[in-house]
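Recall the central idea of this unit: under ordinary conditions, the amino acid sequence of a chain determines the structure it adopts. In this exercise we apply that idea directly, starting from the sequence alone.
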Amino acid sequence: MHEKLTDNREHLTEPVPVQGIRYYVFPPGGEVTGRDGKVSIPCGDLPVPLLEEEWQEADPPSYDAVGRGIYQLLRTDPDVPYAARYAGILRDGYPHIVSEMASHLLMMERKEMDVAYLDRKIASLKVFSLMEPENGRLSLEIGSAYLEKGLSIQLLHLATSSLYQAEKHLRKGEELSPDDRTIRYHLGEVSYILGRYDHVPRYWSDLASRLEGEASERIRERLRRVEAGILPRVPAVDYLEAAGEAFALYHRGEYEDAAGILLDILDDPVFCEEFPMPELFYVLGLCCSRLGMPRYAGEYFREALQLNPDYREARSALDNLYT
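Accordingly, the structure predicted from this sequence is:
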């Protein structure tokens, strides 16, 4: 029969509640077998996740039910307790599920990422990293995805946490692949955004001569600015978080407060040059329009269009400003 986690199993870590998942605890020495006896999975010391609708019939759970439960749990939260054990079970006992995960990840790589897909991509990459903990390239991909998330206009209120996660995974990638240029490039970028300016030369000084074209020129120019002390007044991540707060204030109808924050951000020419964001001007223009200042609104919409001539929302706002 089913056992509760608290029943004579004090040594087990209590699993994290996840919607749609319930846990089954095997008796000591319990195991799951499948694929005509070719796979045997020891489960006596592990809370096994199952889909909630399959938990009632699990006595004990089948090989397929265990695979489905682990797959659902890890794609929902790859940072749960026992995550490495669960990933190892998938790797060694469920090649068809691993193949399905790889296909989904490849599909996500080929399409433009919205926020939901970006989170799914990060979760999938984390699962593969658990399966291959010595693969520095996977750490690079996770760090790069978190960097993309930290700079996403829709998620600027999460910029700090996302960028710290990017730094964490990129550093792990550097430990595993110390000569990987892409890892070092992204680490320099993250260090700059977080205000760790003394770290930037460490990652970029040798890259400037090893890269070509626009990437090399960008690195050289930013290194020159760092060495000369030409820096944003506060770390760029603080401005990103502030922009996220301003956008939230705008959506709550607090236009004056939102405009005040955006004006403070745009008053820093170094930040604006390093991180040209037409959305700042666009939302500031919307604030001015709502506050009855159409002349200023028009100026800000035009600033947004200078940075991005294809910014349809800014073009529409400008065209309809006086209608």
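The beta strands are 21-24, 31-34, 39-42, 48-51.
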